[in-house]
Amino acid sequence: MQENKPLLIVGLGNPGAQYNLTRHNVGFMAVTYLAGADATWRDEHNAKTARGEIDGRKVIFALPQTFMNDSGRAVSALMTFYKIPLENLIVIHDDMDLRVGDKREKVGGGSAGHNGIRSIDSAVGVDYRRIRIGIGHPRDFNSPIEPVDWVLGKFDDEQLKAIKSIIESIAI
Fold first, then answer.
1. Cα–Cα distance between 136 and 150 in angstroms, integer?
2. Helix (H, G, I), strand (E, B) or coil at 22
3. Across-strand partners of 62?
4. pLDDT for residue 4 is more than 90
5. 60: which residues sit within 8 A by CB, 6+ positions away?
6. How do residues 78-115 score in pLDDT, each as one tens digit?
7. Which one of 13, 78, 145, 167 has the minimum C-beta count within 10 Å?
């Protein structure tokens, strides 16, 4: 990471109240938590952004407002405007291949079918840090729900508790 440049921490999700607390919006939930309750959000470059610090390091928190499948447009615009190098980008997103409440981190890699990640990869490259938060797969719950409907569904109380716990454990 370039120490003289801020971190850009992006949470993936979909804008709009109807998507609050849905599985696909776990990235929004995480970044909102990391930014803190006192964060002041503003609209810029197709995203809601807030400024902050983590361990003395300047951070720009971002929630793209372009909908999941076009997240790369907002991320690219923010990186260009703030001159953020790729190694200073951190993206937090949902992952159906992980059990609810599990978390994995890596740098680079493929999109694993995640359209938000695919969009960002296409717009800025692949060598950035990814924090994947498990939302489970409908088959894990013997559910007949299709994956596209699963990610847009809301967590039940037990799942939400596990998600909040894992979000609180994220260390940047």
1. 9
2. strand
3. 10, 49
4. no
5. 6, 7, 8, 9, 49, 50, 51, 78, 82, 84
6. 999 999 999 999 999 999 999 998 999 999 999 988 99
7. 145
According to DSSP, residue 108 is labeled: S
d(CA 170, CA 92): 10
The residues assigned a catalytic role are 24
Alpha-carbon distance of 151 to 14, in angstroms, equals 11
Sheet containing 7-11: give its strands across: 42-44, 47-54, 57-64, 7-11, 89-95, 129-134, 103-107
Find all residues with CB under 8 Å of 94, minimum gap 6, and list them: 12, 23, 24, 25, 26, 27, 114, 132, 133, 134, 135, 151
What is the number of other CB atoms lying within 10 angstroms of the CB of residue 2?
12
Rounded to whole angstroms, how far apart are CA atoms 28 and 41? 13
